[in-house]
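[Discussion] Sanity-checking designs against the backbone

I'm trying to build intuition for which residues belong where. Below is a structure token string of 118 positions. I'd appreciate it if someone posts a full sequence so I can compare it with mine line by line.
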């Protein structure tokens, strides 16, 4: 069993910053991709930022230059530093981790609310 727990969401004013954390624990043979997604009511979940096991990162165009994804493999943790937040960044943010245990499995966190006030 693998557990994925997010933390760090909250309410912030426009222009402010937040840092999200996501920790995976349990039976993990190898941690592969880690990423952050977000979802607003009535819309599909969208990729915000991703981090591969090889060290590459990718970002949605709307957050490039403002958000930074990083990971600590020793702690099975991925972070999302969000700067210059805008009201349109308001969403529930989800962490997804891909783990290899004889085959590939995707695990999602429970989501954390980020609200940016104008």
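Best answer:
Here's mine. Compare freely.
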């Amino acid at each position: 069993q693998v557990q994925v727990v997010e933390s760090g969401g909250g309410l912030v004013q426009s222009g402010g910053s937040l840092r999200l954390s996501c920790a995976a624990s349990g039976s993990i043979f190898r941690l592969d991709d880690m990423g952050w997604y977000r979802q607003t009511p009535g819309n599909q979940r969208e990729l915000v930022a991703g981090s591969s096991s090889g060290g590459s990162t990718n970002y949605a165009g709307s957050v490039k230059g403002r958000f930074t994804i990083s990971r600590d493999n020793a702690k099975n943790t991925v972070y999302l530093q969000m700067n210059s937040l805008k009201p349109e960044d308001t969403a529930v943010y989800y962490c997804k981790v891909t783990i290899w245990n004889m085959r590939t499995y995707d695990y999602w966190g429970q989501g954390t609310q980020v609200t940016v006030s104008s």
